[in-house]
Every structure is written in structure tokens, then in C-alpha cells.
């Protein structure tokens, strides 16, 4: 989905929820959507400061907290970074595939993985309150280019 469509959808959802989509929150959303991959809060801050010179770390963290609460973004815990969620119009399970070589992050929404994980937790009497499943490895592109480098 294109950045403008995502932004319009987020604005509509905020209106329905009665949530304030302030200019700063909107700008951080735009920056996340434009980046298209995992980005740290400090990298977002540096980009935000290009248009809002007075922005400080709490400015970005408050905006990110809002985006996370609304389901518009996800935190990539192992990278201490954030990604835009392209299907925030509905609740969904989330699993992340993270390429250790290029940093690409792929969001999966597999109900079977989610159900299996929850079922296993329940078997141990464990109640999940926050669920982030992340797997590190190499994406197909990096795997193929690594193979080409070894062949050459």
C-alpha cells in the first residue's frame, strides 16, 4: 500500500477512535512509511529534525508510543527499531523475519504460528501479555548474492 493511502487510512481510524493524530505523530508516521524498513528512534529523530528543528528524543518516543498503541507500527525488539504496519485496519498476529545481512524485515501474519505458540504457553499455565516473535537469518536476496560471491 502506498504511503499516502496508509496515511489516509490512519487518519480515518484515528477519527473513528477519537484519537489525536497530531502533526508530529503524522510526520513520524510518514517517516516510518517512507523508510519502508526497520529504523531506530534516533534515526527517525534525525529525519524529523530536518522539518522540526526543536524535536528532541521524547518527541519521537511519544509519537512512536502512540503509533504502537494504535497498531500503526511494530517494534522490532531485537534491533531496538520500528517498522510501519501495512495492515493496521484489523487486529492480527505478528511474526518478524529479520535479515542479519541487509537488515530487511518481513512481517508475517500467520494465525497457525500464533495459535501454536499460544497453545504451548497455555500448556505451561503461562498467560502471554506481550507477544513478539522474531527470527533472524538471511533473506533470499542475501543468500543468493552470498552464493554468487563464493562462486566468483
Keywords:
152 residues; alpha+beta; Arc Repressor Mutant, subunit A; Dna Ligase, domain 1; two-stranded antiparallel ribbon; 6 helices; 5 strands; WH_DNA-bd_sf; DNA-binding; zinc ion binding; transcription cis-regulatory region binding
Describe this structure in words.
By secondary structure, this protein is α+β, with helices and mostly antiparallel strands. The chain has 2 domains: 82 residues, Winged helix-like DNA-binding domain superfamily/Winged helix DNA-binding domain (Arc Repressor Mutant, subunit A, Orthogonal Bundle), CATH 1.10.10; 57 residues, Ferric-uptake regulator, C-terminal dimerisarion domain (Dna Ligase, domain 1, 2-Layer Sandwich), CATH 3.30.1490. 49% of the residues lie in helices and 14% in strands. The protein is built from 6 helices and 5 strands; from the N terminus they run ααααββββαβα. A 3-stranded mixed beta sheet has the order 4-3-5, with no helix packed on it. It has a two-stranded antiparallel ribbon with strand order 1-2. It is globular, with a radius of gyration of 17 Å. The model has no long low-confidence stretch (mean pLDDT 91).
- The CATH homologous superfamily of the largest domain is called Winged helix-like DNA-binding domain superfamily/Winged helix DNA-binding domain
Strand content: 5-15%
Instruction: Report strand order across the widest sheet.
Output: 4-3-5
What is the typical, i.e. mean, pLDDT?
91
Cofactor: Zn(2+)
Protein name: Ferric uptake regulation protein
Family: Belongs to the Fur family.
Subunit structure: Homodimer.
Amino acid at each position: 500500500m502506498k504511503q499516502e493511502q496508509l496515511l489516509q487510512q490512519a487518519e480515518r481510524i484515528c477519527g473513528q477512535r477519537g484519537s489525536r493524530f497530531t502533526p508530529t505523530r503524522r510526520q513520524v508516521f510518514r517517516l516510518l512509511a517512507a523508510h519502508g524498513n526497520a529504523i531506530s528512534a534516533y534515526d527517525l529523530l534525525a529525519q524529523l529534525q530536518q522539518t522540526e528543528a526543536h524535536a528532541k528524543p521524547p518527541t519521537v518516543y511519544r509519537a512512536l508510543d502512540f503509533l504502537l498503541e494504535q497498531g500503526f507500527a511494530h517494534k522490532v525488539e531485537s534491533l531496538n527499531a520500528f517498522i510501519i504496519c501495512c495492515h493496521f485496519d484489523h487486529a492480527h498476529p505478528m511474526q518478524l523475519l529479520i535479515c542479519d545481512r541487509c537488515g530487511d524485515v518481513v512481517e508475517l501474519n500467520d494465525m497457525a504460528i500464533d495459535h501454536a505458540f499460544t497453545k504451548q504457553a497455555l500448556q505451561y499455565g503461562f498467560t502471554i501479555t506481550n507477544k513478539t516473535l522474531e527470527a533472524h537469518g538471511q533473506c533470499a536476496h542475501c543468500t543468493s548474492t552470498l552464493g554468487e560471491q563464493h562462486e566468483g
